[in-house]
Specification:
The structure holds two protein chains of two kinds. By secondary structure, chain A is mainly β. Chain A is built from no helices and twelve strands. Classes of the chains: A mainly beta, B mainly beta.
Chain lengths: 114, 112
């Protein structure tokens, strides 16, 4: 069965520093997609970045990059130059090949210190 | 502005009552989804619909029902059969099932 694991319940980072949020996944399907979402205290889920299983290069979106290591089945999110507004819950998710439904990890709560 | 709206933001229900959560999108997306989030947890899929007049059960469909009579609307009914309905409910949509999903602001349901 497909599964997403986020082993860091909480993380702290100093403002302006980089931080890596871990995500490992398990699937036997050769075709899959990996997503990261941010959930501020307001509750809304904000899409950050996507990586396809066949993509040759790591995905990047502004200050967000995805460290995709296919053989290790990991898809870590790297946030560069952290800002106070980055404080939120971060969820890693994997898309099944059929139906497009997402399987979410338990989330990591990131706190950025001034 | 294009987006997804959910109403109400907060909902209180007495035990034994059915309640319907609204989800509307004007993004012209084909696929729509309902998720449930419990405190400190990730999201779990309740129902999804890839096209009008068609929908499938997700991982935790028991005690819930949906309809998809219009492309832009995907209401979720929480029935009295749902044993523990207090949770945060999020609706999402995507233009194609394999693309990223965009989420609404959520409805927080509390059973009194």
């Amino acid at each position: 069965a497909q599964k997403i694991t986020q082993t860091q319940p909480g993380m702290f980072v100093q403002e302006k520093e980089a931080v890596t949020l871990d995500c490992t996944y398990d699937t036997s399907d050769p075709s899959y997609g990996l997503f990261w979402y941010k959930q501020p205290s307001s509750g809304e889920m904000i899409f950050l970045i996507y990586q396809g299983s066949y993509d040759q290069q790591n995905a990047t979106e502004g200050r967000y990059s995805l460290n995709f290591q296919k053989a290790r089945k990991s898809a870590n999110l790297v946030i560069s130059a952290s800002q106070l507004g980055d404080s939120a819950m971060y969820f890693c998710a994997m898309r099944e090949n059929q139906g497009g439904k997402l399987i979410f990890g338990q989330g990591t709560e990131l706190s950025v210190k001034p | 502005d294009g987006g997804i709206t959910q109403s109400p933001k907060y909902l209180f229900r007495k035990e034994g009552q059915n309640v319907t959560l609204s989800c509307e999108q004007n993004l012209n997306h084909d696929a729509m989804y309902w998720y449930r989030q419990d405190p400190g947890q990730g999201l779990r899929l309740i129902y999804y619909s890839q096209i009008v007049n068609d929908f499938q059960k997700g991982d935790i469909a028991e005690g819930y029902s949906v309809s998809r009579e219009k492309k832009e609307s995907f209401p979720l009914t929480v029935t009295s059969a749902q044993k523990n309905p207090t949770a945060f409910y999020l609706c999402a949509s995507s233009d194609k099932p394999h693309n990223e999903q965009f989420f609404g602001p959520g409805t927080r349901l509390t059973v009194l």
